[in-house]
Amino acid sequence: MPAVTIRNLSEEVHRALKLRAALHGRSAEAEMRAILEDAVRPANRVRIGSALSALGRDAGLSDADLEALEQARDRSPADPLSFE
Distance from CA of residue 67 to its chain's centroid? Predict the structure, then answer.
């Protein structure tokens, strides 16, 4: 797992981080991970499953459509690649 070093962090910010961590019942390191996670993966981000589900609803697809696709699908194995 990658490690990150933060240089030149002021004492004031470090104290605030430690206080915030204590308020959340975790270590300063765990608090920094949570802050970074919230910053790069916000709760309101679009998730691929939700986006695909909405796309299907917008297109008017139903479970019957999915079943029809499954029945029509070719289940035979693909031919292996040949490099000759």
Answer: 29
Predicted model pTM: 0.53
**Nearest-5° Cα angle at 46, 41 to 29:** 10
H helices present in the chain, as ranges? 11-23, 28-40, 48-59, 63-72
What single letter denotes the amino acid at residue 32?
Answer: M
The residues, any chain, with a CB within 8 Å of residue 4's CB and separated by 6 or more, are: none
Residues in contact with 34: Cβ distance below 8 Å, sequence separation at least 6, in sequence order: 24, 26
Reported for 58-67, long-range contacts at CB under 8 A and 24+ positions apart, including other chains, are none
> Tokens standing for 76?
């035979």
Q: What is the pLDDT of residues 21-50, one digit of tens each?
A: 999 999 999 999 999 998 888 778 888 898
What's the CATH number for 8-73?
1.10.1220.10
